[in-house]
Amino acid sequence: MNKVHHCKELVSSLSDYVDGSLSEELCLELEKHLLDCENCTVVVNTLKKTIDIVQEQKTQDKIPSDVKQRLFYRLNLAEFGKEETP
Ligand SMILES: [Zn+2]
Description:
Layout: H1 2-19, H2 24-36, H3 38-59, H4 64-84
This protein binds zinc ion.
């Protein structure tokens, strides 16, 4: 029962942990806990994957934001076109 409470406390620092901004002391505590707790391990892995994806997108995001806007604009126009030419 106590364990679950501990989980909740740690989960609130998990994003900091994955982010690398958690204090070393808490990191160690968390890592110790992860050895015993599958639930938190899953959460950490999911967070890490999510962050990896976000960072990958950020590095590839140099071109897209503009392109995306143009694409949306085009799609809107295309749909307008469809409706206007039955
Ligand atoms: Zn846990």
